[in-house]
Amino acid sequence: MIAFVRGRVAALTLTSAVVEVGGLGVEVMCTPGTLAGLRVGQEATLPTSMVVREDSLTVFGFRDDDERSIFELVQTASGVGPKVAQAITAVLSPDDLRTAIAADDVKTLTRVPGIGQKGAQRIILELKDRIGPVTGVQQPAAAATEPWREQVTQGLVGLGWSAKDAEKACAAVAETAGPVPDVAALLRAALQSLSRA
Q1: CA-to-CA distance for 151 and 163, rounded, in angstroms?
Q2: What is the chain's pLDDT, residue by residue, as a tens digit (197 residues)?
Q3: What is the reported pTM?
Q4: Taking a C-beta distance cutoff of 8 angstroms, is the pair 42, 9 a contact?
Q5: Helix (H, G, I), strand (E, B) or coil at 147
Q6: Residue 66, SS3?
Q7: How far apart are alpha carbons 111 and 33 in whole angstroms?
Q8: 193: closest CA among 174, 169, 176?
Q9: Residue 59, strand partner residues
Q10: For residues 60 and 47, what is the distance between their CA atoms, to the nearest angstrom?
Q11: Based on C-alpha coordinates, what's the Rg of the chain?
Q12: Which InterPro entries does the record associate with it (predicted)?
């Protein structure tokens, strides 16, 4: 188990950071909020969780220990794997998740990509007694990175656009996002801006 990585940030991508640890570059999968707090060339310490699969070893990195513990806890709910767990930590702060589960707030949980109505109900049922109380720790402003950006960017890259073009398109449509972004509409608008360019 790799509990944390500490070293110079060698590279950043849309979904991961490469941290130089003892001469090795360790790729750490991170949420947009965590990546926003990292800078290439600067030292960083990231609490981590390693997920072992038959065909891969993946290291997930987090802003703090609380976020890591939530990532590990939600995976104990049936039907929640590391990708959905990471999406939960990207969209909801640990306290937002605790509040939603305590209040049986299915609507808040279904904001997370990959979680439907039944999945949200199952998470609430299975984690209600184990999630713990709200800690009251305020997340840094970087946590407010819009999750729609990652979704739109991944959608555009999946359609064959470069990551750089996808980021430009997201920047072009950002002001139309509003308080509750419609990811499908933003993706269409981003595609239109790319076709005009």
Answers
A1: 12
A2: 789 999 999 999 989 999 999 999 999 999 988 998 899 999 999 999 999 999 989 999 999 999 999 999 999 999 999 999 999 999 999 999 999 999 999 999 999 988 999 999 999 999 998 988 887 655 444 334 577 888 888 777 777 778 788 888 888 888 887 777 787 888 888 888 888 76
A3: 0.67
A4: yes
A5: helix
A6: helix
A7: 16
A8: 169
A9: 28, 50
A10: 8
A11: 17
A12: DNA_helicase_Holl-junc_RuvA_I, Hlx-hairpin-Hlx_DNA-bd_motif, NA-bd_OB-fold, RuvA, RuvA_2-like, RuvA_C, RuvA_C_sf
Place of tokens 């090795």: 24
Instruction: Tell me the residue type at 48.
Output: T
| Tokens describing residue 97 | 């998740």
Superfamily of domain 4-61: Nucleic acid-binding proteins (2.40.50.140)
Q: What is 65-127's CATH topology?
A: DNA polymerase; domain 1 (1.10.150)
The residue assigned the tokens 């570059």 is 25
